[in-house]
Amino acid sequence: MSHPLYIAFIWHQHQPLYKSPGSGVSLSPSQQYRLPWVRLHGTKDYLDLVLLLERYPKLHQTVNLVPSLILQLEDYIAGTAFDPYLTASLTPDEQLTQQQREFIIQHFFDANHHTLIDPHPRYAELYQQRQDKGQAWCLANWELPDYGDLLAWHNLAWIDPLFWDDPEIAAWLKQGRNFTLSDRQRIYSKQREILSRIIPQHRKMQEAGQLEVTTTPYTHPILPLLADTNSGRVAVPNMTLPKQRFQWAEDIPRHLRKAWDLYKDRFGQIPRGLWPSEQSVSPAILPDIINQGYKWICSDEAVLGWTLKHLFHRDGAGNVEQPELLYRPYRLQTAEGDLSIVFRDHRLSDLIGFTYGAMPAKKAAADLVGHLQAIAKKQRDSHSEQPWLVTIALDGENCWEFYPQDGKPFLEALYQSLSDEPHLKLVTVSEFLEEFPATATIPGGQLHSGSWVDGSFTTWIGDPAKNRAWDYLTEARKMLASHPEATEENNPEAWEALYAAEGSDWFWWFGAGHSSNQDAIFDRLFREHLFGIYKALNEPVPPYLKQPVEIHEAQANHTPQGFIHPVIDGKGDEQDWDKAGRIEIGGARGTMHNSSVIQRLWYGVDHLNFYLRLDFKGGAAPGRDLPTELNLLWFYPEKTMVNSPIPLADVPDAAPLNYHFHHLLEVNLLTQSIQFREAGDNHQWYPRFSRAQVALNTCLELAVPWADLQVPPDYPLRLILVLADEGRFSNYLPENALIPIEVP
């Protein structure tokens, strides 16, 4: 019997706990939230995802709703949650303080401008004024209607396009300008109305059988690190750990029970699946998950690879080799019983999360369906008796900001194709496990300790700032333990503050790896939750908690912090490059320091292209202030291939200029034309076709398709940039180094 290819989509819906704990323990009916993202993502991302799915009844999916997200949604629905953005939005224009006006100009464009601002002419007009003329100009010149319109558009733009046919919303979109306080109050009411439909819609679709709703430990903690921070050394043996070892495994069943109870109350049944926060697992956490009653969990292919001591390779099309290892559930065997586990296809999940938003919707949907059809063909060719299950699991909210119309055209094209394809069948995880229980087994003790980020915990521990935060948490946890009289029943404030502080998000933003313009707020919130523990116990707050965990300054040089999808127009859009790697050139010592016409270099990747940007001194021009030719030379470490030296005169005989390279892209900065070449025998270079894009305006921007370089996924490359005039070497950058690049 031949099976269709079963596919399990799992969308993870989560926001950090933005509520300031001081408000949570007071008798005040309103609760102060530091940031607005529960409210804004709530109107844009949670309801529409399942409403779209409902139109395609053959397709079944799984959605994970984190308990701390549900509780925050309920505060907004009740009208008791207020964040600074909402407070400003509901303030009469003439009563806005100077401080509020500065805040509005600075923060009310916090959105992807390509997809959320540019489609709305009035919002785009105000954004362009701030970009072109600066914040000080806006503060000096904007009239009250400008503020009123910006306050309205910041809220309107986050309402999902699926709801634009609502008569009131359609009227506001058409109105465009001259919004009053009354308009903004009605927009806020509309937001609450959309939020109020989220949980009932999920419950309804689960009861109808089209949806499975899963849960996560209460406040999204990294359970293996709660059990023992030393588990960080399983994947990274030389990891620098916090000064104090955090070992509070007794907190794990508390997080699991609170999630279970909240789920049962909101959905009228018990949960079957658990999404461990950040797909983080370890042998130590399995007994508590089993004892609470959960039937299955999910993690990442990297965790499976470490567990099986098997490196998953991909073919030239990006599809997994030995797919039968990845595309099946496993049974984790422990003394407490068994637990099923599925592992996501990392690349397919990332394509939705980070790349398809930059492609035309139908082409992106066809690409994903094409991958699934290729896997289905492999399954048929294998004549496997066991059905395969492809798990695609990712954040269900953050990626859509980068898609036109919040991903609606992409999802419609994808869902229609999947409905029409007889060899592909979308299922919930529990549906699949009930029909095809896991037969492959893994001893529980053999399970790797890691997460969906590189199969390790380095995103949350090991960095000096992250470790400092763990030490602060350890001290607070010890203080709570020294008060055995403070139980969850008689002192819930202390315990709620602890659970909040144990959440993963604070550690995510501390230190290297991730950054946003709200790092200082996350730092403050973490310390406020720790404050809450001491305050609830009537203990003095340690002085160090009154200082930030780290200094929040933008780093000059840093590696890429995520995928980027810049528009190649030579304008260097700040949002397009905010997650790119950055190397300061102008201030470096040595050869470039003398002229430093090139100020900095930006670089980054997505699944389609490598991206490069060069910033020049104001007014600098090729042929006058800098050479006319820019050469990109690609070096492939540990790969056997034909390589040739740099084909320029007067190249210094010093590393890395005396290396041999395999690909060369020459850009003429005067004409913006390109020549692409590949190394051949006898130190020759041969022309090759390239689809690289180049644009020079206020800066130079380049996109080089991975298809030009013909490299497989997960491959390391190195790049050097060489400037030349009339074929003669002039200079190179970065100095004494190669740019390290990882193909996704």
Written account of the structure:
- The chain has 744 residues and is α/β, with parallel strands linked by helices.
- It has 27 helices and 24 strands.
- The strands form five sheets. Strands 16, 17, 18, 19, 22, 23 and 24 form a seven-stranded antiparallel beta sheet that branches.
- Strand 8 (330-334) and strand 9 (337-344) form a beta hairpin.
- The radius of gyration is 27 Å and the shape is globular.
Q: Helical proportion?
A: 25-40%
Number of helices: 27
Largest sheet: 7 strands, antiparallel
Cα distance, first to last residue? Answer: 36 Å
Shape: globular
User: Which structural class is indicated by helix and strand composition?
Assistant: alpha/beta
Our Rg estimate from Cα atoms comes to 27 Å
The count of strands amounts to: 24
Contiguous uncertain segments of 5+ residues = 23-29, 587-595
**Quick check: average pLDDT?**
93
Q: Per DSSP, what share of the residues sits in E-state strands of 2 or more residues?
A: 15-25%
Could you give the topology of this structure?
Layout: E1 5-13, H1 21-24, E2 31-32, H2 37-54, E3 61-65, H3 67-78, E4 81-82, H4 84-89, H5 98-107, H6 113-117, H7 121-133, H8 135-141, H9 144-156, H10 167-175, H11 181-196, H12 198-208, E5 211-214, H13 223-227, H14 251-267, E6 273-274, H15 286-292, E7 296-300, H16 301-308, H17 323-326, E8 330-334, E9 337-344, H18 346-355, H19 361-382, E10 389-395, H20 408-420, E11 424-426, H21 429-435, E12 440-443, H22 464-481, H23 492-501, H24 505-509, H25 519-536, E13 581-584, H26 591-595, E14 598-605, E15 609-616, E16 629-635, E17 663-668, E18 673-680, E19 684-688, E20 693-696, E21 699-705, H27 706-709, E22 716-725, E23 728-733, E24 739-742
Parallel strand pairs: 1-3, 1-10, 1-11, 2-4, 3-5, 6-7, 7-9, 8-12
Antiparallel strand pairs: 8-9, 13-14, 14-15, 15-21, 16-17, 16-22, 17-18, 18-19, 20-21, 22-23, 22-24
